[in-house]
Write a structure and sequence with these properties.
The complex is a heterodimer of chains A (223) and B (503). Chain A has 223 residues and is mostly helical. Chain A contains 9 helices and no strands. Chain A is elongated, with a radius of gyration of 33 Å. About 30% of the residues of chain A have low confidence. Chain B has 503 residues and is mainly alpha-helical. Chain B has 19 helices and 11 strands. In chain B, strand 2 and strand 3 form a beta hairpin. Chain B starts with a helix and ends with a helix. Classes of the chains: A mainly alpha (223), B mainly alpha (503).
Chain lengths: 223, 503
């Protein structure tokens, strides 16, 4: 402001003594960095409560944590396909109970639109054949091919979008029928899906047939 | 929702349900109500995964849905409900103290599964209890049912809102989502079931109770071809009821601490003579804490418990305790002084607290910078000149409580992160020790010699053992700290909620 133009000396708008500094005293340094991550505390924290109740709750907590991991509600992230399929991994998979929600309590869009019917129970298959629009059949076949190709590349939702645009009304019908079925919605059974790999379809006895069977995928010449 | 709360939600969801559910859950907590497609698009997750995650979240009462116009269904997360997952051990332990093991397992199953039918709960709990019993003994369904009924009667478990039964002649397409309704009268109504049967051990295949109406299927099929008698009637744990109980517990123990000697000499049971009772009540009513008030003389004296005052006292005590432990007892003295006198000037603080000026200033500013104390400006002149303004120190309990609550959330998030870090650091060692334990267990089952077992045990070297011990101790400490901080959270939240209701 105009009044301060001539002033050279720093002046505060308030009485500096009120804050605890005597006039002319050197002010503490300006802090130019964030406070330390683990500052020293003058006072040690009070020890934790101990007792029967506290110990029991502690054990409970740790148990619950482990139990939750084994429940069907814990959805594992699909791991990236590793370079080498470790043999032991197949046998260390924790068996999880399947959980099927009560579809009556959920919005209809929650039901998985499961067009890809695997070699499931016979009645399902018969029903599929019965529904028969050619659209479904081709979609099915395409889907199977796509799945086989894309397995291991993570899940894409392209197929789902396709399927939705193609057969919206059909799926609505389908759901009403499916509602009567005891839920064998394989969508939730990721384990099954993962099992469907080359190792089941082609059975290796020893190294002999290795080259012959996988001709399609091998770029190298067989010797 | 503050960042601290969102972070904590994220950690809890991840620990309990995995990363996919965590991603969807946190997204909803952050952005509010959203439809399915938008969630999938914004989080970059496949529609399939989003559906699975939402099913899990809805099952556990963490997310609710609503049908909006044009048939769009929107999903909304309940952040505060997610934070309640911290309190699960406390709920379960409380039930144990009130209804023993059977009650404990009932509540545990309900919390682990979100919601269950009564028949499902009874079966699971009976099976679990049977596992722990001696060989040949089984737990009867009737006993479990009885405990369930008691829990329902005392409102610790309640019915979930249910799908309304519509007649088949309903014209038009079915709605995109059911509108769940809850009839207040039926909330604690236990369906008339005749659950006959006994719990089953996992391995015994010959120990089947005769005349069991339930399908005799192995444990891992959830399909039940027989109609479930209480199909569609789901139960959940009533967290509010537990909170009521905790609150009452807190008040009782606070008063007990206050009236230590008297309470100790109080005879067990309600055989207190009228005169003695009168004396105690007067004492309580006159106590400056004002937990109990006298609201009239009808019937010889009407006494009432002032819940809000009680909660406020508890919150204030918590604040005082934190100040004491962080800044020292002299700071605590100043804090209590300002609390008592409501507004004080700098000079007055020095005088009343009998602490030299420089130190008093230092302490006040420390507390000010951490927002335990705030400054109230009272200008003497209309131009608000600083040299002509009163600056009064004051404690605003509500805002200090909120600040402390926020710190608690941050603390727990830090504790969880540290625990996860410690576990990850020692992952290799932990896995090794688990494998060794598994080997030892299987060897013991097949009958192995002491020497062989010794050899296997030595696979873990002494320093490794030491490392494992340290890890266990640290993890235990961190876990115990989480539980204790949650107690403080409960107190502060109760106080804040109670105060906000009165505003």
């Amino acid at each position: 402001m105009a009044g301060n133009k001539g002033r050279r000396r720093a002046a505060y708008t308030f009485n500096i003594e009120a804050v605890g500094f005597s006039k002319g005293e050197k002010l503490p340094d300006v802090v130019l960095k964030p406070p330390p991550l683990f500052p020293d505390t003058d006072y040690k924290p009070v020890p934790l409560k101990t007792g029967e109740g506290e110990e029991y709750m502690l054990a409970l907590k740790q148990e619950l944590r482990e139990t939750m991991k084994r429940m069907p509600y814990f959805i594992e992230t699909p791991e990236e396909r590793q370079d080498i399929e470790r043999y032991s991994k197949r046998y260390m998979k924790v068996y999880k109970e399947e959980w099927i929600p009560d579809w009556r309590r959920l919005p209809r869009e929650m039901m998985p639109r499961n067009k890809c019917k695997k070699a499931g129970p016979k009645p399902k298959k018969a029903k599929d054949a019965g529904k028969g629009t050619s659209l479904t059949n081709t979609a099915d076949v395409l889907k199977k091919i796509e799945e086989l190709e894309k397995r291991g590349d993570g899940e894409k939702s392209d197929e789902e979008n396709e399927e939705k645009e193609g057969s919206k009304e059909k799926s609505k019908e389908g759901e009403d029928d499916e509602d009567d079925d005891a839920a064998e919605q394989e969508e939730y059974d990721e384990e099954d899906q993962e099992e469907e790999n080359d190792y089941i379809h082609s059975y290796f006895e020893d190294g002999d047939d290795f080259g012959a069977d996988s001709d399609d995928n091998m770029d190298e010449a067989t010797y | 929702m503050t960042q601290a709360e969102i972070k904590l939600c994220s950690l809890l969801l991840q620990e309990h349900f995995g990363e996919i559910v965590e991603k969807i859950g946190v997204h909803l907590v952050r952005t509010g109500s959203q439809p399915l497609r938008v969630i999938a698009h914004d989080t970059g997750t496949s529609l399939d995964q989003v559906k699975k995650a939402l099913c899990v979240l809805v099952q556990h009462n963490l997310v609710s849905y609503q049908v909006h116009k044009r048939g769009v269904v929107e999903y909304e997360a309940q952040c505060s409900r997610v934070l309640r997952m911290l309190r699960y051990p406390r709920y379960i332990y409380t039930t144990k103290t009130l209804y023993s093991d059977t009650g404990e397992l009932i509540v545990e199953e309900l919390l682990l599964n979100g919601k269950l039918t009564m028949s499902a709960v009874v079966k699971k709990v009976a099976d679990r209890l049977t596992e722990t019993m001696e060989d040949g003994k089984t737990m009867d369904y009737a006993e479990v049912s009885n405990t369930f009924v008691r829990l329902a009667d005392t409102h610790f478990v309640q019915r979930c809102p249910s799908v309304p039964t519509t007649e088949n002649s309903d014209p038009g397409p079915p709605p995109p989502a059911p509108t769940l309704v809850m009839n207040e009268k039926d909330m604690y109504l236990v369906p008339k079931l005749s659950l006959i049967g006994k719990g089953k051990r996992r391995r015994s295949s010959d120990e089947e109770a005769a005349g069991e109406p339930k399908a005799k299927r192995p444990k891992h099929t959830t399909d039940n071809k027989e109609p479930i008698p209480d199909d569609g009637i789901y139960w959940q744990a009533n967290l509010d009821r537990f909170h009521q109980h905790f609150r009452d517990q807190a008040i009782v123990s606070a008063v007990a601490n206050r009236m230590d000697q008297i309470f100790r000499s109080l005879p067990v049971g309600y055989n207190i003579s009228k005169q003695v009772l009168d004396q105690y009540l007067t004492l309580l009513a006159d106590d400056p804490l004002e937990f109990v008030g006298k609201s009239g003389d009808s019937g010889g004296g009407m006494y009432v418990i002032n819940l809000h005052k009680a909660l406020a006292s508890l919150a204030t005590a918590t604040l005082e305790s934190v100040v004491q432990e962080r800044f020292g007892s002299r700071c605590a003295r100043i804090f209590r002084l300002v609390l008592q006198k409501k507004h004080l000037e700098q000079k007055q603080v020095e005088d009343f607290a009998m602490i030299p000026a420089k130190e008093a200033k230092d302490m006040l500013y420390k507390m000010l910078s951490e927002n335990f104390i705030s400054l109230q400006e009272i200008p003497k002149t209309p131009d608000h000149a600083p040299s002509r303004t009163f600056y009064l120190y004051t404690v605003n309990i509500l805002s200090a409580a909120r600040m402390l609550l926020h710190r608690c959330y941050k603390s727990i998030a830090n504790l969880i992160e540290r625990r996860q870090f410690e576990t990850k650091e020692n992952k290799r060692l932990l896995e090794k020790s688990q494998r060794v334990e598994a080997i030892i267990a299987s060897m013991q089952a097949t009958g192995a010699e002491e020497a062989q077992l010794q050899e296997i045990e030595e696979m873990i070297t002494a320093p490794e053992r030491q490392q494992l011990e340290t890890l266990k101790r640290n993890v235990n400490k961190l876990d115990a700290s989480e539980i204790q901080v949650d107690e403080t959270i409960f107190l502060l939240e109760s106080y804040i909620e109670c105060t906000m209701k009165r505003l």
